[in-house]
Every structure is written in structure tokens, then in C-alpha cells.
Design goal:
By secondary structure, this protein is mostly helical. The protein has one domain. The longest helix has 24 residues. It is globular and about 45 Å long. The relative contact order is 0.12. Keywords: Membrane, Transmembrane, Transmembrane helix. This is Prenyltransferase.
Amino acid sequence: MNAIKQLFNAYIYGSMHVAMTVLALVLMTNHMFRIPFDWAIATFAWCGTMFSYNFMKYDGLFRVKKTAGRRIKIIVALSTVALAVAGISFFFLERVTQIIAIVFFGLTALYTVPFFPNTKNLRNWSGIKIYIVALCWAGITVVLPLIDAGIPLTSDAYLKFSQRFLLIIVLILVFEIIDLKEDDPHLKTIPQQIGVKRTKVLNLIFLALLFFLEFLRITIDYRQLAANLCMVVATALFTIYATPNRPKYYTLFWVEAIPIFWLGLVVLFGQKLF
């Protein structure tokens, strides 16, 4: 049991779970726009996410107790492999996709590292973190697959980008509710500014908007609509029951698994992924 727990912790804290979430959203985009599976995009998204998230968490990782040293070494090794694989897959992307990917990587770097003296990184800019993360996730999981497949950015593409942006905002807000006791007050997260109850109401409004935006699609797929409804209801329940007293796994595993659950619903309802 101890070995299983260690593997599970390596999976969670090594950012493999969040990488699976990003991959699930990429596959959702493939499904929605009938894009054939592209190993280069899938690999770049998975490995790039794993490396980026571990890179962003480096400062925190090295401040944990010494007993976690072995885990840190394992995460560093896995991150190095992920970076190498992401680098290889990068060269199999279309040129325009590579340029857009570099832009998002630049945002990730700015999020972590202050590029100018006496300045903060984007992570510490009051109130901006949530929008940078949502923009990067929506861009990587919607824009990159479409651009690489040569699909024009139609109204449906902008609609899906907006829905994906809203979904990530919603998931981050659940994280911020759980982390309320630990977050620095200077971060000015939404729960810090408006309280937990109002944050939950805001989340439910965003989820309703996300769902009803589907009716603006050029062609409405009612099986996809049913999958969306199940995903929205599940996310709403996680929002309603979120409190600062919940254990970390509430968000680190269950909330981050919502996009994976969404992808599973697509399969369950008999739809082809790509």
C-alpha cells in the first residue's frame, strides 16, 4: 500500500495528472472539430504541461521538508525527460503552431520568473494569475490543435475558446476556495475579495453561461450537449461543496479530473473522439 501511495503522490505532485487533464481537453477539441489524432500535438501538450507546472512549482518544492527530497529528485528527473520529449515533438509541429506555442511558453516563463530587476513575476501580480492560466490553457487546448490541423478560426472556434476559458476560470476558483487559508492576502484572489459564498455564485453563473453558449454553435450536437450538461452539473457540485477545510486531494485529483470525466462522457454517449 505504501508503494501505491508513493506512486500516486508522484503522479499528482509530478504534475502528470494535470498533464492528463490538458491532454483530455486537447482530445475534446479533436472530437468537436473532427480533427484526426496528432501524436505531436498530444505529446507536446502532455509533456509541455508536465514540465511547465513542475518548473512553476520549483521554489515550493525545494522549501518542503527534507524527507521529501527523494520525491523532488524523482520529479526533477521526470520533468527533464518531459522537457526532452516536448522539445522533440515541437519540431514536428507546423511552423505557425510553433510560434504560437512559443508565445504561450513565454507567458508561462513570465508567470514564474521576473525578467526585470525589482519586479514581480506574473504569479504575484494581484488578480492577474487566474486570467493568465485560463488564457494559456484555452490557447493550448483549443488554438494549437486547430492551427496545427489547418482549420480556420470560425465563430465555432471562438465559441469553444470562450467556453474553455470559462471552464478553466471555474476550476481555478474552486482551487482558490480550497486554498483560501494558505494564500497570501496580497494575491487578492477572488474568494479573498468577495468571499466564498459570492465566489460560488459567480462560479455557478459562469457554468450556466458555459452551458448555454453551446446553443450558439452553427450545428448543435445533442449528445455533446448532454455530455456538457453532466460535466457542468458535476462541476457545480464540486463548487457547492468546496470549503477551505477540504483536503488538497479534493482539487489536486478530483477537480482536476473533471475534463477527463468530460472526455469519458463523450465516449460513454457513443461519440467518436476523432
